[in-house]
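I have been asked to look over a protein record a colleague put together. Alongside the sequence sits a line of tokens, each denoting a local backbone shape. Please read both lines and tell me whether the tokens look consistent with the sequence. Take the sequence as given and treat only the tokens as open to question. I have pasted the whole thing underneath without changing anything:
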Amino acid sequence: MASGGEPDYGLDERKAGYVRVRVEIPDLKAKGRNFMNKIIGGRRDEASNAKVECNFEERSFILNVAGEKDLNGKSWTMERPMLPFNIDPYSSYCETEKGFVNIFLKKECNDDDWSTFIRKGDLSAN
């Protein structure tokens, strides 16, 4: 994947009230959780070889991944400026795991039907 390109991704609704965007970031390594987070079940939101930032607005999100260490010089950006429905930006979040960033978009209204967009594999409202 070229630096600066949009990564591959998949969509699902496996977590109630959320749309998950599963973004592939080759060779991404999740940072281990500290002792306290293991006990209380905290999120794994940092990577050990990249800086991961995800910003949410009511109708959009942007993910930026800037490689460090073995990923130095590589970067990925995924931006959706107009989602099909509103999300709750304060309850939306991202987690890292080996090779992936999982973005959880909290639906503002559980009655909104995202299934058409998920089947198409595209979250653009346009």
Observations:
- The chain has a mean pLDDT of 88.
- The beta strands are 9-12, 18-24, 50-57, 60-67, 75-80, 93-97, 100-106.
- The longest strand covers residues 50-57.
